[in-house]
Give the backbone structure.
Amino acid sequence: MLAAQEARKDVTVDFFRAQRVTSAEAQVAYGLVAMSHPHVSPAAWSRYLRAQGRHGGQERGLIALKDSRGCMHALFAFAVAPSLEGEATLHVTELAAARLPGTTLIDSLVCFANKLAAELGLPAIQLDLQPSAVWEQDREAMAQSGFTLDRVTLRGRAAG
């Protein structure tokens, strides 16, 4: 059983290539963003990218998960954020994703997040995913990677 899980993880890492997104690729990523968020205009995406670029020394950026053809399947934002406990945390937020069956997307994201956290010397990772992104098999794969449900985020419109 353990050998099968390890073999699956090796295939997963090879299936999707996770990498930081350049500014030129960020404009190309709008197609994936528009598919996941049809209400986001190209102008709104450009404003988001400009704001993302203004970080005042804080480590942040975009992560793309691409297949071997270079096709982008998911887009995430990342930033280093302090916690109440004073422990710096790699905060990864899902922006858009085209899901495939299985856990390959989540496995690749977790693998890249672990590598990036190690590169930045961070002891913790927080994943902020769309509820529809976490399928039952993803929960199991994430638990095996040491991730547990920590918070629930509710989002609504401000009254007034």
